[in-house]
Amino acid sequence: MHHFLPQPALLLLMSSCCLCCCAGLDLAVCEQVGDAALAIIAAHMRQLATLKVNGCSRVTDAGLAHVCSIDSLLTLHLDRCIQITDAGLAQLTRLYGLTSLRISRCPNITDRGVAQLAKLGRLSTLSLAQCPLVTDVGLMSLSLLTTLASLEF
Q1: CB 50 within 8 A of CB 69
Q2: What is residue 141's three-state secondary structure?
Q3: Counting CB atoms within 10 angstroms of each CB, which of 83, 90, 99, 147 has the fewest?
Q4: Phi, psi for residue 2 in degrees, rounded to 5
Q5: Are 147 and 123 in contact (CB under 8 A)?
Q6: How many other C-beta atoms lie within 10 A of the C-beta of residue 72?
Q7: pLDDT over 90 for what percent of the chain?
Q8: What confidence score (pLDDT) does residue 91 get?
Q9: How far apart (Å, rounded) are the C-alpha atoms in residues 105 and 80?
Q10: Residue 53 contacts residue 33 (beta carbons within 8 Å)
């Protein structure tokens, strides 16, 4: 099922006081959610702990730069965000508190990007399923993550 959330609707939602303090936001498969929406979310939802934008194919590395300003973020789902690259993963290393990350089915992620994730010292759950450019070399770079309890590959 595909969802449509126009930009003005997102702005209206973000202006609501109750959403500013919201801890979780699930925008999975919302076709219109992209980098501009992530900028709005990052600016208005400073207490966000969980963000799910899986299947939002308009999300790029530029959008992840905005997400990285949400210091409270613990869980991030980016499955099927097909424009994300290793450069975007490098930016995610600024999310020191991140404990759960899903980046499955992202065709532009490589071993180099996965190696960057080893800097996320609190990461306990990671999904890299069906990332065709990730090999054993990338997985070996995660051996430094002593908190990693669940790895999907």
Answers
A1: no
A2: helix
A3: 147
A4: -105, 140
A5: yes
A6: 13
A7: 84
A8: 97
A9: 5
A10: yes
Cβ-contact 150, 128 below 8 angstroms: no
Give 55: exposed, middle or buried? Use CB within 10 Å, 0-12, 13-18, 19+. buried
pLDDT band at 18 (very low <50, low <70, confident <90, very high): low
DSSP classification of residue 23: S
Other residues' Cβ atoms within 10 Å of the Cβ of residue 101? 22
Distance of CA 125 to the CA centre of its chain: 13
What is the structure's pLDDT at 2?
46
Give the confidence band of 120 by pLDDT, cuts at 50, 70, 90: very high
Tokens of 50: 């969980």
Within 10 A of 9 (CB to CB), how many other CB atoms are there?
Answer: 11
- Distance (Å, whole) CA 74 – CA 23: 10
The two structure tokens encoding residue 145: 């993550």
- Residue from 82, 49, 75 nearest 63 by CA: 82
Give the Cβ contact number of residue 131 at 10 Å: 22
Structure tokens at 113: 């990007």
Report which of 72, 38, 66, 43 is spatially closest to residue 53, judged by C-alpha positions: 38
Q: What is the mean pLDDT of the chain?
A: 91
